[in-house]
Amino acid sequence: MKNRLWPVLAAGVGLVVMMAASPTGALWRDEALTDPGDISTGILRLTAGGQEDYVFDALSTANLVPGQSVRAPLAVSNAGSTEMLYGLTGAAATAGTAADHVFAAGLLLRVTDDTACGHSESGGAVTLYEGPLGPMATFTGRELPPSGSETLCITVTLNSSTPATAAAGTTQVVFNFRGDQWL
Fold first, then answer.
1. Do 153 and 114 touch, CB atoms closer than 8 A?
2. Is residue 129 included in any domain, yes or no?
3. pLDDT digits (tens, 9 = 90+) for 27-56
4. What are 110's strand-pairing partners?
5. Residue 138 forms part of a structural domain
6. Which of 25, 30, 33, 167 makes a 20 to 30 Å CA pair with 135?
7. Residue 39 domain flag
8. Whole-model pTM?
């Protein structure tokens, strides 16, 4: 009987250990209906002068001499359906001849929010960028609501220290703007 008792006791202890170690659990379930709402896309479209590719003829001039400026207003618009932050991401001048390179290097850019593009340097206008043309000619963070617009004043000046080798130089300036959705 002693030899039979060991297996029975071992089986009983194993059963108690297994029951004590078994996990307990519960399952809950609930349901509810919700209105999923609508998700739609918006349109992001930045225009200058009412067009996506705009030829800014109002800024053209002939015979610009050192120290002289030309300025013109530029309307920037949000032709899309969503709020937008926009900015200038560079202003590049093209040059072919040596005189063109010297001329382009002597050009300075000033962009303000002067909607009248008045010739007075005072008057409360905020300067958004002032400096040489090139990839560093930038500003960001201008807000435009859908169908909104803003007029900027673009001034290009031939630096008064531009050398005479710029004489007869010509260039074409390309302004690059970027618009991003604003939430």
1. yes
2. yes
3. 778 788 878 787 777 888 999 988 888 888
4. 130, 155
5. yes
6. 167
7. no
8. 0.74
